[in-house]
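Work Package 4 report. The design task specified in the project plan requires that, given a folded chain encoded as structure tokens, an amino acid be chosen for each position. We show below one input record used in the internal validation round.
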């Protein structure tokens, strides 16, 4: 058996083990293209735009539209790579499985470790944002807010963020009932929140003033870069589409299409929302304001009714992000468990609901803790740098898999190859630079912990070592 750093599981073995071309490892194929697009939008549109817009505006001023566009360009190049890999290896493991098939087990484990950060910790951050808009909704409808002690963590002047815990547990309850039920709920919520954001744009543009866009680049190029790094959090989640690889009908066709449709729709929506909000009130009125979109509508309409509608949309939108991101997290853990790199409890699928029930409840309980006690600001930058690092690996994986497995069926191929994935790496590194040295240090520490976990647990328990199957030696061949 080659050294652990050089173990590679072939795409054919991954697909065979998951049953991705049939029924996936006890999972059922119930999601069509429309539901998958709604799933992707459900994973993306939420806290990043409803809560994070104000932070992006604080960094970039009116040029936040450029920041959103820059973040989108980074996502587009990487979306191409995800689309090709998702069509070639339609399994639940997403970028973890892509790295395993092209770059080796150790790097794949670290990608999975970063996915725990992206999906898991972002669930906590999103739940905190949900709590903020729930209070705004209560204020609009009933004229009161939950006590700070029960609606914010210690860092934000409270004791425990109870609503954040509740939304995570509600999402887990829906997820264990079945994918069909979760997909239907996600589709309904996606349609509703897109409608509310379009309504917001109509209100904002009705009060649009050109003077509010001047000066445009308030903090210069550095501000635009910093704003793009913050805005990138608003796009996190599109890669969750690939985690549904074993539960999607015709995944080789529908996964690439869903990724590209989601990125296009979300980018247009985000730029329109940012432009209308700043055009209506100005950057200073939006920057660093909690529940900024409700604030804009309240001031433009001189009524709390419109703000209440936006708050309701935010509550629905952010809840759908919690639902879809938790779904992605459980499927990543299921794939890692299938490979022996995390405990086997995470791969068990209930024969009744065809969902990983124990996995889902473990994830919900673990990430309810930071949601209850952490601040949103603490985790956003760390989640962003983790996601960008994963995207660097995915872009490299496209090149590596083209060289290693050129015969693999691909219903979508990255355009302008190899320039496109190389540009994807470059844009990701540029945004990583914008997160700042403190975030780099935190992330380095996080990776060190992940490497230790792999060395002490995953390396010895990998099923490439403990249960080699016929042909596994070839599948686990050393890297060239």
């Amino acid at each position: 058996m080659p050294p652990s750093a050089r173990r590679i599981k072939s795409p054919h073995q991954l697909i065979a083990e998951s049953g991705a071309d049939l029924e996936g490892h006890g999972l059922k194929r119930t999601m069509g293209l429309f539901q998958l697009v709604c799933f992707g939008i459900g994973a993306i549109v939420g806290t990043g735009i409803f809560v994070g817009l104000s932070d992006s505006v604080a960094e970039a001023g009116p040029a936040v539209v450029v920041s959103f566009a820059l973040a989108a360009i980074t996502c587009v190049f990487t979306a191409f790579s995800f689309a090709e890999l998702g069509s070639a290896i339609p399994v639940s493991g997403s970028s973890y499985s892509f790295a395993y098939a092209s770059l080796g087990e150790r790097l794949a484990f670290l990608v999975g470790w970063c996915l725990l950060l992206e999906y898991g910790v972002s669930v906590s951050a999103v739940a905190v944002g949900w709590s903020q808009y729930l209070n705004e909704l209560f204020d609009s409808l009933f004229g009161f807010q939950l006590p700070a002690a029960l609606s914010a963590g210690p860092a934000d002047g409270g004791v425990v963020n109870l609503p954040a815990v509740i939304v995570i547990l509600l999402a887990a309850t829906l997820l264990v009932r079945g994918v069909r039920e979760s997909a239907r709920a996600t589709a309904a919520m996606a349609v509703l929140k897109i409608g509310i954001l379009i309504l917001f744009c109509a209100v904002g543009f009705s009060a649009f003033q050109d003077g509010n866009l001047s000066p445009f680049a308030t903090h210069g190029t550095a501000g635009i870069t910093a704003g793009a790094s913050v805005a990138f959090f608003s796009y996190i989640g599109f890669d969750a589409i690939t985690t549904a690889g074993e539960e999607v009908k015709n995944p080789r066709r529908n996964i690439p299409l869903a990724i590209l449709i989601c990125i296009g729709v979300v980018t247009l929506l985000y730029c329109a929302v940012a432009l209308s909000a700043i055009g209506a009130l100005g950057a200073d009125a939006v920057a660093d304001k909690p529940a900024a979109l409700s604030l804009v509508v309240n001031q433009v309409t001189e009524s709390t009714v419109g703000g209440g509608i936006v708050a309701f949309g935010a509550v629905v939108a952010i809840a759908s992000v919690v639902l879809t991101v938790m779904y992605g997290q459980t499927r990543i853990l299921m794939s890692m468990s299938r490979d022996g790199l995390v405990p086997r409890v995470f791969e068990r699928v209930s024969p009744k609901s065809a969902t990983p029930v124990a996995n889902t409840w473990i994830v919900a309980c673990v990430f309810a803790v930071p949601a209850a006690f952490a601040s949103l600001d603490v985790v956003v930058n760390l989640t962003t740098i983790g996601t960008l690092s994963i995207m660097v690996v995915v872009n490299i994986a496209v090149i590596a898999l083209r060289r290693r497995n050129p015969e693999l069926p691909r219903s979508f191929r990255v355009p302008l190859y190899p320039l496109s994935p190389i540009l994807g790496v470059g844009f990701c590194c540029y945004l990583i630079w914008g997160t700042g040295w403190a975030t780099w240090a935190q992330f380095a520490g996080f990776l060190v912990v992940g490497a230790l976990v792999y060395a002490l647990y995953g390396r010895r328990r990998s099923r490439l070592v403990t249960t080699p199957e016929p042909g596994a030696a070839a599948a686990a061949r050393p890297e060239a």
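Residues 126 and 401 are 34 Å apart (CA to CA). Validation will be extended to a larger panel in the next phase.
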